[in-house]
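Appendix B, example 12.
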Amino acid sequence: MSGAARLLNRLPAGLPVGDGWVQVAERAEVRFPYDGTPVAAAPVGDVATATAALDAAVAVRDRVGRLPSHVRRRALLEASDVLAAAGEDLVELLVLETGKPRVDCRVEVERTLLTLRTAAEEVARLHGETVPLDLLPSGEGLIGFWVRKPVGVVVGIAGFNYPLLLAAHKVAPALAAGCPVVVKPAPQTPLATLLLVHAVREALAAAGGPPSAVQLVTGGPDVGRTLTTDRRVGAVSFTGSAAVGHRIARDAAPTKVLLELGSNSALVVAADADLDAAADAVVRGGYYASGQACISVQRVLVVEAVREEFLRRLADRVAGVVVGDPRDPATRVSALIDPAATARVQAWVRDAVAAGATLVHGGRVGPDGVLAPAVLLDVPDGVAAWDEEVFGPVVAVRSVPDLDAALAAVNASRYGLHASVFTSSLESALRAVDELEVGGVVVNEVPGFRSDVMPYGGVKDSGTGREGPRFAIEELTVTRMAVIRPTPRSS
């Protein structure tokens, strides 16, 4: 029996709803994106299942909000220990479920463990402050302080590309904040998330908390609508496309909505950049996870003076990218999540060429169905491969006259998640930090760099709110002000 199968055999039948697991009528095959072979039959929920999960979450909302800090902390730490012990088996399951190269799935597991542990430690830092109310005469004699209170039931919806990690960024901060959470994974990738939720529920019950504080419901758009439009929900946290995120925000109003949406992240190569480092970064940052990452390198803006030398170095490196079976440790680009995604990315490459761009590498599907990493030159504005999020192994390179033009081009996008600048000038680096309209500016490293302890999120159409346990906990709590006059005034 494979490691992935051993893990799945640990799961009870059905879906983790309420304090137990409820049986569902429907199951759907999860298939290995590389060759289409079945991985497992996953339970599929429906509107009734979603409603039952919300009912259970509301029923324990007050109890979860009052759980002692040591219970929440212990549950997260013990769940992390359980997943860490499953290490390589969990990596194998992610490879089969997502089709991502093994190296990327190993990083996903490591980052998931860090997210759980960091959220556990943030429980100890969930506190308020005193307020000097006597700054005005009317406040004399008053004592003021504020505390943080849980926002209530949280609905977390995650994407398919990093299912375990994205779910951890919903579950761990919610539980740390004292909020019941209902998770909905992507239909293509529910398996690792089921294991995560099972581990947290088991650890929570052992620590003295209710398992129904953490639940999972699978299903289609009708399940998502049920979860996000219920007025008993305190906050919705969504990771996915901009179009879906915007619709959720409209439909869920006035419920608080946190959106981690798409991007077309840019990397700027200044005239004084280390060109070897920049070329390495484009390949490393453009093709990891087969390009299915919202902060992968998509747009490369190269100052004209170094364009030809940069392109020469880039070509040498792209030619060395290993393409194929994601189970092979050497593979860096493999199959996209499904054939429809591959066909769409191919079509975007063809459209870019038809609009005047030059395809200088890749962009074609091999006999194994894997799209070879592509490099496009001089993609014009108004073309999807430049304007939108490709979510595939495609990098578009454009030359600009100077750094001013490069920064302006980065900002001339409806997205603003991460961007990076390669330069040896401290002045240029600080200009980028000051001027780029993005959630994160990375200097001399890939825009896809993300530490799970930092504030992470975008501006413009890339989203609202911030992830990272400390910052997500702040988003999932509300301040409650206390104003006390120890001795009532008689007049």
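The longest helix spans residues 69-98. The longest strand covers residues 143-150.
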